[in-house]
Amino acid sequence: MDTMSFTKKDPPKWLLHFWKEIDDKTFGDGFDCFVEDATCNLGIADWKGRETIRENLRAFIDTGFTALHDVTEYWDGGSLKVFRGTVTMTPDDRAHPVVKPVMTHFFYMDEAEPKKVRHWYGSVGPVAF
């Protein structure tokens, strides 16, 4: 069994930059927070590699909406970073409603490069009932 202490902090620049890349639909160097062979389990996704994560998120956002991520709470446990927030999802088709699902994400940092993410577990939603 492991024990870990967490400190509530302001969200780090790397995390805000990552979300901004998605929100702005630029998908650029904000993804450099991941090691090259990072893994992402976001909902049912099981993506391997930084470029696969980037391209799959781009494809998801390109399904017809704009996202705006808001980090409500960020906790730093050293090798594990946890945050919760909301994402406002505005459909391109204004006939559909704007939704604001809750997010919870766990970022396990890389042992060799502790400033980079090795494994991302995320949960968003539900977006509708």
Features:
129 residues, Nuclear Transport Factor 2, Chain: A, 7-stranded mixed beta sheet, 2 helices, 7 strands, 18% helix
Please state the second-level CATH architecture. Answer: Roll
Largest sheet: number of strands, sense, barrel closure? 7 strands, mixed
Shape: globular
Question: Please, how many helices?
Answer: 2
Please trace the helix and strand order, writing H or E for each element: EHEEHEEEE
Number of strands: 7
Strand order of the largest sheet: 1-4-5-6-7-2-3
- The class by helix and strand makeup works out as alpha+beta
The CATH first-level class comes to: Alpha Beta
Stated plainly, the CATH topology is called Nuclear Transport Factor 2, Chain: A
Q: Please compute the radius of gyration using only Cα atoms.
A: 15 Å
Mean pLDDT: 96
Strand content: 35-45%
C-alpha termini separation: 37 Å
Spans of 5+ residues with little confidence (pLDDT < 50)? none
Number of structural domains = 1
- State the helicity in percent bands: 10-25%
Write a concise synopsis of the structure shown.
The chain is of the alpha+beta class. The chain contains 2 helices and 7 strands, in the order βαββαββββ.
Describe the structure.
- With 129 residues, the chain is α+β, with helices and mostly antiparallel strands.
- The chain has a single domain (8-124), classed as Nuclear Transport Factor 2, Chain: A (Roll), CATH 3.10.450.50.
- Helices cover 18% and strands 42% of the residues.
- It contains two helices and seven strands, in the order βαββαββββ.
- The chain has helices at 13-23, 50-61; strands at 7-9, 34-42, 47-48, 65-76, 80-91, 102-109, 117-124.
- A seven-stranded mixed sheet has the order 1-4-5-6-7-2-3, with helices on one face.
- Strand 4 (65-76) and strand 5 (80-91) form a beta hairpin.
- The longest helix is centred in the middle third of the chain and has 12 residues, at 50-61.
- The protein is globular and about 50 Å long.
- 19% of the residues are buried.
- The mean pLDDT is 96.
